[in-house]
Description:
By secondary structure, the protein is mainly α. The protein has helices spanning 5-10, 15-33, 36-46, 48-54, 71-74, 97-106, 113-135, 142-164, 167-174, 184-201, 210-229, 237-257, 263-269, 275-284, 293-312, 343-360, 365-375, 385-392, 396-410, 413-420.
Amino acid sequence: MRLPDAARDGGRDRPDRRGNDLFARRREDAVARSGKDDDRGDSVREGNDAVEEAGIPEVAPGEEIADEVSSDEAQGADHPAALTLLPQGESAPVGDPVGMYLREIGRVPLLGAEQERTLAETIQAGFEAAKRLAAGDASLTPQMRQALELKLMHGNIAQRGLAEANLRLVVSVAKRYLGRGLSFLDLIQEGNIGLLRAVEKFDSNKLFKFSTYATWWIRQAISRAIADQARTIRIPVHMVDSINRVVRAMRELQQELGREPTPEEIAVVMDMVKDLDRESVDEAGIDDHKLSDDVRRRLKQAARKVRQLMRVSQETMSLETPVGSEDSSVLVDFIADDSVAGPVEQTDQELLREQMRDSLECLSEREREVLALRFGLVDGESRTLEEVGQQFGVTRERIRQIEAKALRKLRHPTRSRKLRDYLP
């Protein structure tokens, strides 16, 4: 089997350091995951038949994925991730990272079943060698230690070779997730992480193809990345799964009913209510008064959960988003600020202030200051009789008397008539 230059160069590193790094990371990941990956591995094995029935894009041995791909073609409207062959000998544009990447991975030949099995066995032998070296067995002779280090080196080379030969599988899976908030290259990068995990977990003794096994790890890695990175406000993975179920149920009901479904109808279709409650709803209908109070209450609770999922699924949008074909207009230009008074309200407030100033002219200077402090006419903050009295150096009773006298003057018909029109 011919390995890429990168894989062959990697074998010239110190085998003990590379092996220790690789297998130490494997052990640390296993401790951090606390056995969760084993559960996912079980689900991978259980889903093999489903994947084979669905079909995984395969490329014939020796066939290249694409000599060149332009970024416009890789992100076009008709088929955003279509891999278009270019004439032999042409080179990708300098600023086309997608084309450059696909050209590079297309040079790596695909593996046959026997080659996959051989590489997997070499990787497993490297894992076993790493365990023995990490155990620090004093009975190992220099010749035995050298043999184990050689297995480590071969295991690292085999691991990289198996991963690089299946990079085009990641591309075929990643293009199905376009339009969900991550760019094509980001999807490929996250899928490559899942591919590396599949390389570590693959067991050739199970007698199924590596591409079948790796597809599920790639999908899991991409789906997790979309849930973690695609949104401005992160939503937990279990919430993303529930939101996807709500969207599918809404689409199916809309096609069936010919209208927008209600949250109650969505909750029934999603089995968010008990079987007995669903039977009652099917017989009597959601809005029928024959439903018992308990069924209505549980149906309303399920509908509230659906509304919450629909509210959480709303996408955030920047106020600087361009509107229309011209860049001169942005979304914020078309959103009114309810906290700002309109021209009519501002004019009324200014006229009211002028009328109040004219009305206060009939009062003495002390009376104007007392009213301004008591009712917050200057800064909008009203003060108590005690606070005003301390500021003037008199008792609170004296302030009350000054305030009452000033208000009597303002209540005179000749003065109050000017302000009465501004009352609601």
